Amino acid sequence: MKIGVLYICLGKYDFFWESFYRSAETYFFQDISWTREYFVFTDTSLLYGEETDKHIHRIQQANLGWPDNTMKRFEMFLRIRDRLEEMDYLFFFNANMEFLAPVGEEILPSVGENGLIGALHAWYFDTNRWNYPYERNRLSSAFVPYWRGKYYFQGSLLGGKKSEFLQLCATCNKMVYEDLSNGIIPVWHDESIVNKYFILHPPKVLDSSYNYCEIRNLPIKKIILYKDKMKYFSFAELNRQSYQECHAKKTFWEDLLIKGLNYMVKFWHIINKG
């Protein structure tokens, strides 16, 4: 069985490749019945390990800048669709991830999970669903109303059976370009698009153990670490907006609605304790 690992490291992000690769070779699907093929989209001329490991496939990719490097990832993957069709399963990992413990068949989707997997966002581990940062612009293809959405997934880990994953890529890529043609960039870019797709096609849900943010202290096991980019680079060095600037897109009325819902929940808890 073949596992295709999709990985993007453009610009300074190639810094993370060696630690990711070495940890995957130690912990990711280590049973001998599985073969890992790494498809690395990069603008670097040489990757760690590629001269000795025939399973590392360097895909030359222009640095599109931010946010296109993340928003247009689906288009990147579809560019080598013929090669990805040869895999049994496909998994995308953010550049700044590192395996800390064995990961294997337990993450594979079962019947009824649409052949897909997604990992819960560590920053919304214990948050009411109306606080999830879905795209609230009704004109966006990623729009999610406040009454919808059970989970909020981080875009850093996606995967599943090859056919279902490639269908996700094709649909999400279409949604991205629909928004761009209308002058819209979803609040969290490809992550917003993926969350809308997962509402329509619910995946197997992996908890935040598989997406453990290193600057959070969560009461769960650390299986895959999501490294804090700001420990290594500044937002200026990465040529991108800060998280605060992205959050600032929320309107006054959206903020007021969320605060009202939170007060209602607190009031409900007070009444029930009495």
Q: Any key phrases for this structure?
A:
274 residues; seven-stranded mixed sheet; three-stranded mixed sheet; 19% strand; globular
Please explain how this structure is put together.
With 274 residues, this protein is an alpha/beta fold. It is built from 8 helices and 10 strands. It has helices spanning 17-27, 68-71, 73-79, 81-84, 162-181, 189-200, 243-247, 252-273, and strands spanning 2-9, 35-42, 56-60, 89-93, 97-99, 116-120, 153-161, 204-206, 212-213, 224-226. Strands 3-2-1-4-7-6-8 form a 7-stranded mixed sheet. It starts with a strand and ends with a helix.
> For the report, how would you describe the main beta sheet?
7 strands, mixed
Output the number of helix runs.
8
Q: Uncertain segments of ≥5 residues (pLDDT<50)?
A: 242-246
Shape: globular
Radius of gyration (CA) equals 19 Å
Class by alpha and beta content: alpha/beta
The residue-averaged pLDDT reads 89
Spatial arrangement of strands, main beta sheet: 3-2-1-4-7-6-8
What distance lies between the first and last C-alpha atoms, to the nearest angstrom? 57 Å
Task: Give the % helix.
Answer: 25-40%
Helix and strand pattern: EHEEHHHEEEEHHEEEHH
Number-wise, the strands total 10
What amount of the residues lies in strands? 15-25%
